[in-house]
Amino acid sequence: MNGGPIAPLRETTAAELEAIAARYLAPEAVPAYVEKSLARGGLVTLRMHPEHWLGADLGPS
Q1: DSSP labels, 1-59
Q2: Domain boundaries in the chain?
Q3: What is the pLDDT of residues 17-37, one digit of tens each?
């Protein structure tokens, strides 16, 4: 795919996987998760470029 809302797929790097895992796992669990995930293989990173935004003002009127 060239251009458009989805960038080309590419293999996920260890740094990307570590950054994502650190958002959801306890710090001590991240290294083992990354190691096992990379050993399993087949991980890809998908990047999207939004073309449209939907929003609403939910604040007080």
Answers
A1: --SSSBPPPEEPPHHHHHHHHHHHS-GGGHHHHHHHHHHH---EE--B--S-------S
A2: 10-44
A3: 999 999 999 999 999 999 999
